[in-house]
Amino acid sequence: RKISVSETKVLGELKYRFVEYIRESDEERSALLLGSPLSVNGEETVPAHDELQYLNLVRHIIENGHEKSDRTGTGTLSVFGAQMRFDLRTSFPLLTTKRVFWRGVAEELLWFLRGSTDAELLSDKNIHIWDGNGSREFLDNLGFRERREGDLGPVYGFQWRHFGAEYEGPDADYSEKGV
Predict the structure, then answer these.
(1) Over 70: is that where the pLDDT of 117 sits?
(2) Is residue 48's pLDDT more than 70?
(3) Residue 140 belongs to what domain range?
(4) Which residue, 19, 71, 127, 136, is the most exposed by fewest CB within 10 angstroms?
């Protein structure tokens, strides 16, 4: 955790500052990320639940994140190796303020788990999130003229199921290939 930052010093053309950090104990880090109950004056006001993990992580990033530049010029704050844990037997961790096409989310996840790379399998189920990435125009613009329309290449599910295997197309048999 960052505890202090010195004033900017100048030595010739070199500008620098000192940042002092202290290491949080494992218990402090676990309490922060696993969603401790919110309390006021020692009295619990909101019981611990999954959303608190996310909110606590956001707070942790804002308070302790390291500034990084990005391609947009806006900049980001980041922390290394943050994790959250959810009991998928009781709920699905979907934190959003907008309506979600739940059937599409579930079908896409199953498609990933199968290791599929064929966007047409989703399109046939009226799920069109990958259509643009498998269109003839998109593939041609990227130089993938040999791929048929809908062939996304080695996307997420392929990497999950066949990591290290050479991509041979959406219909290839990848048994005994990859890790």
Answers:
(1) yes
(2) no
(3) 102-162
(4) 71
pLDDT of residue 10: 85
Please state whether beta strands 14-16 and 9-11 pair in parallel, antiparallel, or not at all (unpaired): antiparallel
- Domain identity same for 106 and 74: no
79 band by pLDDT with thresholds 50, 70 and 90? very high
Here the tokens at position 41 are: 């004056």
Q: What is the reported pLDDT for 9?
A: 83
- What confidence tier does 103 reach under pLDDT thresholds 50, 70, 90? very high
Whats the size of the chain, residue-wise? Answer: 179
Higher pLDDT, 31 or 151: 151
Q: Each residue of 98-125: b (16+ CB within 10 Å) or e?
A: eeeeeeeeebbeebbeebbbbbbbbeee
φ and ψ of 50, to 5 deg: -60, -35
In order of 14, 131, 163, the CA distances from 157 in angstroms are 47, 16, 9
DSSP 114-146: TT--BHHHHHTTT--TTHHHHSHHHHHHTT-TT
Q: How far is CA 122 from CA 24, 107, 111, 113, 126, in A?
A: 45, 8, 8, 13, 7
In this structure, what token pair is assigned to residue 29?
């880090």
